[in-house]
Design goal:
The protein has a domain of about 180 residues. The protein has an eleven-stranded mixed sheet with strand order 5-6-2-10-12-14-16-24-18-23-20. The chain has a ten-stranded mixed sheet with strand order 1-4-9-3-11-13-15-17-25-19. Strands 7-8 form a two-stranded antiparallel sheet. It contains two helices and 25 strands. The N and C termini lie far apart (about 75 Å). With about 290 residues, the protein is mainly beta.
């Protein structure tokens, strides 16, 4: 019996050693630069599995650090993942694109559009798993368009460019001390935003299964629309209720003209002006100063 136990213990130790050899870690670092200092400069960062963290600073360079992790059942599959997964960089005018490079990723250079599709047959499934975490430092006046899908949150701090477009499918969005026209969409988690200066252009905030909390600066002038199936909107701004928007629609046949009443609740803050659109399904919105 003693011999048997020794053999089993030895096998377990060997198995652990094999598992340790199935993971590969690498840190990728890049230093980028816009062609000129321009308030319309935009950095695009597109990830799929992993987080994105962006911080504004007083420098002129874009500093990108990506922590890449590949896991596989054996060395051959691990090597395939190491070769197939990385990052790509493209530049077009005043825009720089940093994005996941994989067999399922496509970048349309003419349109500046990133797409990713892993709808493969079962037999074609990759024999490895991958995860990339992006950490980026940008000049403070840089516009941002960042997005990820799985296994990571998006965090942006001290970035005050003209654009703040952020999309996360299964993680949260946190934007601290930011500025710019905002388009924030978190499908299944919360959105939390504090502004350095209020948006000057129409902005939108959408979440399917999370709450949206936005802290604006005092002196906000905006027309706010809100729609949620199972939630409410709370605010400490003084507001004026706006009439529902009615649109006219021509209908062929004998029914004449149809009038559609907007189902969104609308109210005005201050003297009105830009439009702020909040849409949720199962969450609440907080708009405060």
């Amino acid at each position: 019996m003693k011999t048997s136990k020794v053999i089993l213990l030895t096998m377990a130790l060997c198995f652990c050693v094999v598992l340790q050899a199935q993971e590969f870690r690498e840190t990728i670092k890049k230093e980028l630069q816009f062609a000129s200092s321009n308030s319309k400069n935009v950095l695009h960062v597109q990830n799929v599995n992993g987080s994105i963290a962006v911080e504004g600073y007083n420098g002129s360079a874009i500093l990108v650090e990506v922590k890449k992790v590949i896991k596989a059942k054996n060395e051959a599959y691990l090597e395939t993942g190491k070769q197939e997964i990385g990052i790509s960089i493209e530049e077009k005018g005043n825009e720089i694109f940093v994005f996941l490079d994989s067999p399922w990723t496509y970048f349309d250079f003419d349109k500046g559009r990133f797409s990713h599709n892993e709808n493969y047959n079962y037999s074609d499934r990759p024999k490895y798993r991958y995860h990339l975490d992006f950490t980026v430092k940008v000049p403070k006046n840089t516009g941002l368009n960042v997005g990820t899908m799985n296994s990571g949150d998006i965090f942006v701090k001290d970035v005050q460019g003209s654009l703040m477009k952020v999309n996360n499918l299964n993680g949260a969005i946190t934007l601290e001390n930011v500025s710019g026209k905002t388009d924030a969409n978190a499908l299944n988690k919360d959105i939390n935003i504090t502004y350095h200066s209020n948006p000057r252009e129409d902005s939108s905030y959408h979440s399917l299964n999370g709450d949206i909390n936005v802290i604006f600066k005092d002196g906000l002038n905006a027309d706010v629309s809100f729609k949620s199936l199972n939630g409410d909107l709370y605010t400490n701004f003084d507001t004026t209720t706006l009439q529902a928007k009615v649109t006219q629609k021509e209908v062929k046949g004998n029914k004449g003209v149809k009038y559609k009443v907007d189902s969104n609740e609308s109210f005005r803050i201050g003297s009105g002006g830009i439009k702020l659109d909040f849409q949720l399904l199962n969450g609440d919105a907080l708009v405060k100063k």
